[in-house]
Amino acid sequence: MLEVGNGNLTPQEEKSHFALWCMMSSPLLAGNNLTDASPELIKILTAAGPLSVNQDDRALQARPCGYGNGDGGGIWQAFAKPLADGSTAALILNRNASAAVNATVAFKLCNVSVTSTVVTDLWTGELLGSFSKEWSAELDPHAHRSVKISKPTRDL
């Protein structure tokens, strides 16, 4: 059951917890009292990007595809999940409670087969750019980044 909204996690940890559950195609059973949920909590539980990954038609679970240690000793992990539209959802997670880390999704290790990709933030829908071999992000303690990696589209 989701721990989001039970008062034991920081807002950052709640988003990370929810995003990881979505990547694993886990049942999204709210473990809190929804009648007392704050607007911020409802925003997490109804986030279209992460939910689209959880509800993807292929219903595959994400698999680990990278890990490392940051300069300050922080441990990070990367996960990837193939999606029905041919794109890949990826999540990088800072497991450290006190140190920020720079984490990388290496496309080859995460089974991204295209040579040119577009990376989009799953929470905001923001286009983060085009990349050819990897994508990196700086993560605060217990923070994550969830992205969709897809082929670029061309306007003719």
Folded structure, characterized:
The protein has 156 residues and is α+β, with helices and mostly antiparallel strands. It has helices spanning 11-23, 39-45, 48-54, and strands spanning 63-69, 75-82, 88-94, 101-106, 117-121, 127-131, 134-139, 144-150. It has a 6-stranded antiparallel β-sheet, covered by helices on one side. Strands 4-7 form a two-stranded antiparallel ribbon. The protein is globular. The termini are far apart.
Helicity, in percent?
A: 10-25%
Spatial strand order of the main sheet: 1-2-3-8-5-6
Looking at how many chains there are and whether they match, the oligomeric state comes to single chain
Low-confidence stretches: none
The SSE string, one letter per element, is HHHEEEEEEEE
Q: What summary fits the major beta sheet?
A: 6 strands, antiparallel
Mean pLDDT: 89
- Rg is 15 Å
Distance, first to last CA: 47 Å
* SS-derived structural category: alpha+beta
Strand content: 25-35%
General form: globular
Count the helices. How many? Answer: 3
* Secondary structure: number of strands: 8
Task: State the gist of this model.
With 156 residues, this protein is α+β, with helices and mostly antiparallel strands. The chain is built from 3 helices and 8 strands.
